[in-house]
Amino acid sequence: MPLNAISKIMFLFAGHALCDYPLQGDFLARGKNHKAPIPGIPWQHCLVAHALIHAGMVYLVTASIWFALAELVIHCATDYAKCNGNIDFQEDQFVHYTCKLLWAIL
Question: Which domain holds residue 13?
Answer without folding.
Answer: 5-105
